[in-house]
Amino acid sequence: MKLYIKNMVCDRCKMVVKAELEKLGLYTLSIQLGEVELNIDNLPKDVITQLDNNLQLLGFELIDNRRGRMIEQIKNIIIELIYSDKEYPALKISEYLVGKIPQEYNYLSRLFSETEGITIEQYLIHQKVERAKELIVYDELSLTEIAYKLGYSSPAHLSSQFKKITGMSPKVFRGLQSKPRKELDRVGKK
Fold this sequence. Notes:
four-stranded antiparallel β-sheet, Alpha-Beta Plaits
């Protein structure tokens, strides 16, 4: 049986969800961002309700409709893309998503915008800026290295988008004592 779970955005999320499932005596065959495959075919409604309640207390939520699963899949693909150690692909996000999800991009884009209130491209930019903040905080890479790691054509392009989203340049952000960041599941939201 597959379960789809909203707000699973990192490896720690996978560990937390797995632990929560095990508390209820449920064991996983596989666990990916936003998706868990259990070693059983069906769950009683009361167990599903209990699991959903437990997950909501931890900031997660069971997704029971196709649209919600598709949105979560788009978000997880973008997050994996941004946080991967692999080289950023030389593809447009539309081409990249269609390569991962066998749907027309216009459909994916419209669905995402209607549900999330921002476009896929805006969501991608917000995620890139949050990743840039993280890399700036680590202070291991130059702005040029960060820009290329995130698929920007230049540090100036990154700086422009960074300032548009945060209201400050990466240099000003680097100099702050307290560096404000967002949780990945809150990126793109007001």
